[in-house]
Amino acid sequence: MARVDYNVNMTHLDALRAALGSSQVLTGVAAQPYMTDWRDRYHGQALAVVRPGSTNEVAAVVRLCAEAGTPVIPQGGNTGLCGGATPDDSGRAVILSLQRLNRIRGTDTDNDTMEVEAGCILQTVQEAARKVGRLFPLSLAAEGSCTIGGNLATNAGGTQVLRYGNMRELTLGLEIVTAQGEIWHGLRGLRKDNTGYDLRDLYIGSEGTLGVITAATLKLYALPVARCTTLLALDSLESAVAMLERARRGFGASLTGFELMAGDCLQDVVRRFPQQHLPFDGPSAELPWFALLELSDSESEVHARERFETVVGDAIEAGVVADAVIAESLAQTHALWHLRESIPLAEKEAGKSIKHDISVPVSRMAQFVQETNAALQDAFPGIRQVIFGHLGDGNLHYNVARGVDWTEDQLLAREHDVHALVHDRVSSVGGSISAEHGIGQLKRDTLPHYKDPVEMTLMHRIKAALDPQGIMNPGKVLG
Ligand code: FAD
After folding, report:
1. In this structure, which residue's CA is closest to atom 13 in ligand 1?
2. Closest residue to atom 1 of ligand 1, CA basis
3. Which of 106, 110, 158, 310 has the fewest CB atoms within 10 Å, i.e. is most exposed?
């Protein structure tokens, strides 16, 4: 697509239409679905939603916006949980949807890499890797609709981080459209490259505030030969932490998942989605905590099973685990994971909640949860905690929902106070207020309270250097 010069006789919208074709510049009703986030917590307005189909078209859009001083809001699958992809309500911004940049450009099985465009759906990338006998391990409940660009921009984590790392660790190269509309061709498939500052790591996790990610070179891994999955019923959070330690020792790098779920989260899932079942009867079904544990073995089914049964069996004998159900088939494995992945959906059905995506050292987790639960009940009697997440990474979704005596409005009116109570406690145990979801607009004003002032200053300087006009996703991450 040839460069379109913005001139005074053309409106900004005309120029965008000339660059992309009118059908890819949405306004009015067609643009509305892009203006609200997945949780229905943030609503904005934009001049238009533009849908470029190539990197050159993305660059043309950003150049036009830079010339006009128009804010650019990159958007992928719009599943983010911090309002990062939602514009403000001024109606000045252009939402830049990456959904049409959805080609898998190539796979190099000798190098174990895959080059994909930013708008590829995560699940499509996982399936493409499987087709060539490889694993792309990023896995999260929104994988059917989130995009690689959004995963990169938020440095997404998910359920396999304890073995494979988060999105930053799964990425070797990037293609970027800068805030000035230049294209940085950084799609290197190299595992070693010490040639100066690591710009790749700067763009990953920048939530669209420094530039637009248009493509990436991703790392692939060997497909496991066998997987074993179990749901463990536990008497206490201390037992969950003790079991994690046993699993780490017993399985080493084969431990690929350790997800914690509060009992009432699972009860809520089976109540709202009657096709799902908790695979325990009697007192085990009533226990306060459950953990989903997964082992991925590179030798054989028999080898996996033996290791698995030894570690889980020993834990039951030692009284660390109260009960366990081991998946006997792929269908049962999927059913167990489905229970875990349905928690955010059940939570959404129950109404708006107050989210915390925190990480604390695993060694402090049990005490943190116990003391913070008590402090919350003291300050806001009758609220409900919704606790689940990636215990293996020290990352919990420690959410707060309304109890029976609360209305949604009453709960949301206390959001600031609830955040402050939880985040102060997270900070006091050396934790982070955003483990994997990012900052967006949700935690923009909170961030300076918990981050080192020098670190904040450096972040502002980086923003000013890479986006001097401040057009890239303004009002997100930094105030
Ligand atoms: P969007 O929501 O469209 O955007 C998110 C941010 O990235 C915005 O700031 C946006 O401006 C920016 N952005 C998007 N695309 C680009 C691009 N190409 N270039 C530059 N900036 C861009 N997250 C986890 O980490 N782990 C989980 O386990 C997890 N579970 C989830 C479960 C559910 C049910 C839901 C709804 C969400 C979950 N999330 C989780 C959050 C979310 O899915 C991830 O953050 C995901 O990576 C966002 O991808 P997206 O394409 O939807 O991005």
Report:
1. 150
2. 78
3. 110
